[in-house]
Amino acid sequence: MVDDLEGISVFLAVAEARNFRIAGERLGVTRSAVSQALQRLEDRVGVALVQRTTRSVRLTEAGEIFYETVRPSVTQVGSALQALREMQSRPSGMLRITASSIAENFLSGPLLAGFLEAYPDVKLDITITDDEFDIVEAGFDAGVRLGEVIEQDMIAVPVSSEQKQCAVASHEYLTRRATPKHPRDLSSHICIGWRPRPDAAPYRWEFAEKGRDFDVAVDPAITTNDMGVMIRMACAGAGITFGMAETFKPYIARGELKPLLEDFGPPFQGFYLYYPKRQRQPLKLRALVDYIRKYRKL
C-alpha cells in the first residue's frame, strides 16, 4: 500500500506546475528527485503519466485521468491529517501570503511582528506583487488586496481603514512650479507615474469633484512599477507623484513631501486579507485572522 502511494504527491505537484523545477521548489526537493520519483511511479503503474520534452511538460491521457481521480482524495487525506495534528498542537508551519506593494498598514511591520511573537511556531513567506491571479492555484494561503478587486467568493477581513489617494511633491519642486489647484493643472507639471508592467499604460490618476468621479491621464516623465522609486524621485524634487495617502504619511510628517489636491480625493474601500472558503481552515491561517481582528480593535 505504501509503495503504491509513493510518488503521488510528486505527480500532483508536476501536474499542477507543468514544470519539474517549480514542482521541486514547491516540494522542497531537487528537480532530479522529482524526475526520479515520477519515473518510479510510472514504472509501478506501467504507463506514462507525463510527456516530457526539452521545452515543456504535459500530462498524457492516462495522466489526466489519474490526476482528476486522485487529486480530490489526496486533498481530503491531507485535510484529515492536518485536522488530527491541529487537535493537539499549536498553530505552526509556513503561512504563504501574497500582498499588494501598497498595502502599507499590513506590511509596515507591527501587525506581522506582533503575530509572530504571539505564534512563534508559525513562519511567514510573503510575496509582494501587484498582479491579480488565483491565489489558490498559485499555492498561497491568503492574499492582501484592495477590497474592490477581491472576488466575491472569497472571505475578506479588513486590515486597514478606508483609503484615499493624493498627489504629493517636494517643497523644492513647488518653489520652481506653481502649486496645482485643480487636477486639470497637472498637465503643465512633471509627473511621476506607476504602471504594473513595461507593456502596460501608466495608471490614470483618479479624483472626484462634487460627487462625480473622473480621472486624469497625465503624461509621466518617469514611470515605474516601484512605489519606492516614485517616492524617492518625488522627495528629490523630480516632480509630482500620486498614490495612497497612507503610503506618503511618514514623508509628509517629516516635511519631505507636501500633499496636493486633497479635496479631490474621495475615500474608498481599504485593504483586506482574503482567502478561499473551505470546510476547515488551516489552524495557522485561523490564528492570523483572529489576531488581525483583535489588532484592529486596538
Any key phrases for this structure?
298 residues, alpha/beta, Arc Repressor Mutant, subunit A, D-Maltodextrin-Binding Protein, domain 2, five-stranded mixed sheet, 22% strand
Averaged pLDDT, please? 88
Distance between the termini: 53 Å
Rounded Rg: 24 Å
The description of the largest β-sheet is: 5 strands, mixed
Estimated helix fraction: 25-40%
Q: What is the number of independent domains?
A: 3
Q: So how many helices?
A: 11
Second-tier CATH architecture of the largest domain: 3-Layer(aba) Sandwich
CATH topology term of the largest domain = D-Maltodextrin-Binding Protein, domain 2
Elements, N to C (H/E): HHHHEEHEHHEEEEHEEEEHEHEEH
Total E-strand runs: 14
The rough form would be described as elongated
The order of strands across the largest sheet is 4-3-5-14-6
Describe this structure in words.
With 298 residues, the chain is α/β, with parallel strands linked by helices. The longest helix has 27 residues, at 61-87. The chain has 11 helices and 14 strands. It has helices spanning 2-5, 8-17, 20-27, 31-45, 61-87, 104-107, 110-118, 171-176, 227-235, 245-253, 283-296; strands spanning 50-52, 57-59, 93-99, 122-128, 142-146, 154-158, 165-169, 191-194, 205-209, 212-216, 222-224, 240-244, 258-260, 271-276. It is elongated. It folds into 3 domains: 2-87, Winged helix-like DNA-binding domain superfamily/Winged helix DNA-binding domain (Arc Repressor Mutant, subunit A); 93-162 and 270-296, D-Maltodextrin-Binding Protein, domain 2, CATH 3.40.190.10; 165-264, 3-Layer(aba) Sandwich (D-Maltodextrin-Binding Protein, domain 2). A hairpin with a 4-residue loop joins strand 1 and strand 2 (57-59). The protein has a 5-stranded mixed sheet with strand order 4-3-5-14-6, with helices on one face. A 5-stranded mixed sheet has the order 11-8-12-7-13. The termini are far apart.
